[in-house]
Here is the input.
Amino acid sequence: MAEIFKLDGTQQLDRATVEQAYDRWAPIYDLVFGGVFSKGRRAAISATNRIGGRVLEVGVGTGISLPLYGSHLRIFGTDISEAMLEKAKKRVTEFGLKNVEGLAVMDAEKLEFPENSFDVVMAQYVVTAVPNPEAALDEFARVLRPGGELIILTRVSADAGMRRFIEQRLQPVVRPLGFRTAEFAWSRYAKWLAGATGMELVERRLVPPLGHFSLVRFRKIDIAAAA
Here is the structure.
């Protein structure tokens, strides 16, 4: 899922708005975003393949990532858009992806899985496209097994300086297009991490395009193993 959505007059997001926006993007999503985000996508999946186990991809979209996962993984994909998932289902059939357990419409902020269900939770360009990003991050951590990793590809705006100034000035221009340019500085992610129980930062690095996106890995601390 790329970080695109329609905003209402109060500049707030809700589930229906996000769902409708992605339903509209479904027919051309791969064409528009497939190449643009390919390097970041491959970096995130490479990290996932090294970890192994059972993987939840939140915001699986059209399933563009599914053929890239190792056959030794078990994948479950969720998305808010039924139209996106229909394309993902066709991709699973086309590529004969037997390691895909299932695909389901699901709200990222209310995942329908028990705690400690997955070894990896993957969310590509999802966090800034949901109404309450911190609630979504909490859910990702909840369904993650101790010792597992939360891997996100996400827009990270500047905390200060000229880039921050430019992003703020661009905000009124890009909002009608569905982009957030200045709301997700690293300090926001760091604040979430500080309040999250049992989560630690493993890696943060820039990925294309243009250095405005980052691959971020968090690990759920295995308290029992550490004791």
